[in-house]
Amino acid sequence: MAYTPSRNRYELLRYNHCGRSGLKLPAISLGLWHNFGGIDPYETGRRIVRHAFDAGITHFDLANNYGPPGGSAEINFGRMLATDFKTLRDELIISTKAGYYMWPGPYGDGGSRKYLISSLDKSLQRMGLEYVDIFYHHRFDPETPVEETMMALDQIVRQGKALYIGLSNYSAEQTEEAVAILRKLGTPCLIHQPRYSMLDRHVEESLLDVLDKHGIGCIAYSPLAQGLLSDRYLKGIPENSRAGKPSGFLKKEDISMEKLQLIQRLNEIAGERKQSLAQMSIAWLLKDQRVTSVLIGASSVQQLENNIQALDHTHFETAEREQINQLLNKNKDNV
Ligand SMILES: NC(=O)c1ccc[n+]([C@@H]2O[C@H](COP(=O)([O-])OP(=O)(O)OC[C@H]3O[C@@H](n4cnc5c(N)ncnc54)[C@H](OP(=O)(O)O)[C@@H]3O)[C@@H](O)[C@H]2O)c1
């Protein structure tokens, strides 16, 4: 069925400046890591993407290896762009990445200029795009000089294949080093994409301060710890869940008794706030002004809609913050 986007789509969400840049990102963005690959029902993914755009989500995050099989999420998203979003390219922020294994041999993984440039060319082909808005180096590569990786990112921007560049999974120290090189090259780092949720707060130690100091935006991935920070696993492991599927990155053994008890307690606190646990988990990240956007995943329109409604209540009373912090600190060795 032909798609006509909702007319009031820009009245629903908040848009935050990405660090000290002119680019605004929606407070909630959608990632296509799981649920949009060749093994997933295409029409479900398409409904989720349409619903996201109708709700004001302008930013869609991909990577060369998303699927499975690797590359298939970009192919599927490319189909959606060609059919549903053909006239809407200027309303979209599309990102992709390279840095993990993509093809055999010495040039299909890591951080070399050879890999990054050929990988982005392939991503553009799969999505049918002339450029992406943001291109990320997906993870730090200790075997490649940082200068080489940064020069490749700079070249990609100068060639017009990406408008901005970003770093993902770089530590605070690695970020400092990369950012200094990028500044000299004249292509500033726009954004950093770290894992960040109530169950993984490593970025609070120093990365968020580094990003703030340099005016770099932060987009937090796996904000629900892949679904753990929701009611998904409170009554067992559903077959159709990420942990229930053989292809998922969340494993059954990741769901310990201790974790479930913590999640149950957090679920009760969310209930007191009249929110779902997923909503409270998203709101909890957005209370920090340094977080530009929260990058969620969803396997259904219902989940997506539930998550978007997190924006209706992002304020935390001091007592609520303290209660949650205490609970998380007490359990930090169990999660
Ligand atoms: N840069 C990196 O290295 C990196 C790594 C990982 C992810 N990412 C990016 O971050 C995006 C999000 O990651 P993620 O998918 O792990 O995020 P997430 O939001 O933590 O987890 C998403 C999963 O949680 C469950 N879920 C979502 N909303 C729910 C709700 N309201 N109620 C119950 N369950 C709910 C669904 O699981 P079910 O499928 O079980 O329904 C969904 O697939 C990815 O798509 C990708 O773009 C980047």
Helix proportion of residues, in percent? Answer: 25-40%
Please report the first level of CATH classification, the CATH class of the domain at 20-193: Alpha Beta
Indicate the CATH topology of the domain at 20-193: TIM Barrel
The structural class is alpha/beta
- How many distinct helices? 10
Q: How much of the sequence is in beta strands?
A: 5-15%
The SSE string, one letter per element, is EEEHEHEHEHEHEHEHHEHH
Mean pLDDT: 97
Largest sheet: 8 strands, parallel, barrel
Taking the alpha carbons of the first and last residues, their distance comes to 44 Å
CATH superfamily of the domain at 20-193: NADP-dependent oxidoreductase domain
What is the second-level CATH architecture of the domain at 20-193? Alpha-Beta Barrel
Question: Radius of gyration from the CA trace?
Answer: 19 Å
Spatial order of strands in the largest sheet: 3-4-5-6-7-8-9-10
**Which descriptor suits the 3D outline?**
globular
Query: Unreliable runs, pLDDT <50, ≥5 residues?
Result: none
DSSP strand tally: 10
* Ligand names: NADP nicotinamide-adenine-dinucleotide phosphate
Explain this structure to me?
The protein has a domain at 20-193: TIM Barrel, CATH 3.20.20.100. 36% of the residues lie in helices and 14% in strands. The protein contains ten helices and ten strands. α3 (113-127) links the parallel β5 and β6 (132-137). α3 (113-127) packs parallel to α4, α4 packs across α5 and α7 runs antiparallel to α10. The radius of gyration is 19 Å and the shape is globular. The protein binds NADP nicotinamide-adenine-dinucleotide phosphate. NADP nicotinamide-adenine-dinucleotide phosphate is lined by residues 31-35, 61, 138, 168-169, 193, 221-227, 230-232, 241-242, 278, 295-299, 303, 306-307.
